[in-house]
Amino acid sequence: MNIFHIKKQLKRRWRRWRRAIWTIGACSLVAIMAWLGMPLSEQMENLMTNEPIAMETWGKLQKAAPEATEEDWLTELKRTDRNRIVHLNKIYTCGEESSVLGIMRPDEIAALMKAHPEWEGRLAAGGDVWIDERINGLSETCSKQGYIGIDKDGNLTLFDGPPKKEKVIRTFFQLDVEMMESALPADVLKQLQQGIRIQDVEEYNSVLSTFSDFALEQTEKVMQQNEER
C-alpha cells in the first residue's frame, strides 16, 4: 500500500473517531438535560441540526424520542381490550426469521412479555403485536447458504447463496472499489466477487470489520445493528 492510501485510511479513521466522540458527547448532554427536565436551547438545537457530523446523531435522537415504552403499548393493549395477532421476529446477528404465535388476549401478551423480559414488543399500525427476540448467532438461512460479496453496484452485500444468484438478504455499505483494487491482493478480490461463505458469527463479524475500512464515507455504517443486537 503506497503512502497515498495510508494517508487516506488515516484520514478516514480520524473522521470515525471524531464522529464517535461527537455522538457520545451529544447523547450524554441530551440525556442529562432530559433527566433534569431542561429543554434544549435554540442554539443547541441549531447546532445539532446544522453541523454535518451531528445531523445523523440528532436524527437518531429525534427518531428514538417518540417511541413508546413497553409499558405504553401494553397499557394501550389493555385499554382497548382486543385480541391481537402476535408475531415473533427472531433477529439474528446474521439474518431474521418471523413466525406467528397466534391470536392472544391482552393479559396473555402481558404474561408472555413478563416471562421474557429480554424481548422487545410494539403495537404496529395495523393493530398486530410484533415482538423482537435478538439472538447472537446465525439464522438457518445464513448458516446454510449465507455469503458476503459485492453486488453489481459495488455494495458489500449479504446473499442467500453465491452472489451470482443475486438473492440479496441485506446490503451493508458501498465499497471504494478502486481503493480495494490497489490495496488488496487479487485473490482476496476474487474471493469477494465469488462470495465469502459465512459459517459462524466470528467469521461474519471479521468479514464486515475487514471491508469496513474500504467503505465510502457517505454510506459507511460499520454495522451498528450488529452491535445493538
Automatic annotation (TrEMBL):
It comes from Paenibacillus macerans. InterPro entries: BofC_C, BofC_C_sf. Residues 138-212 form the Bypass of forespore C C-terminal domain. The keyword Mitochondrion does not apply. This is Bypass of forespore C C-terminal domain-containing protein. The chain crosses the membrane at residues 20-38. It comes from the Bacteria. Keywords: Membrane, Transmembrane, Transmembrane helix.
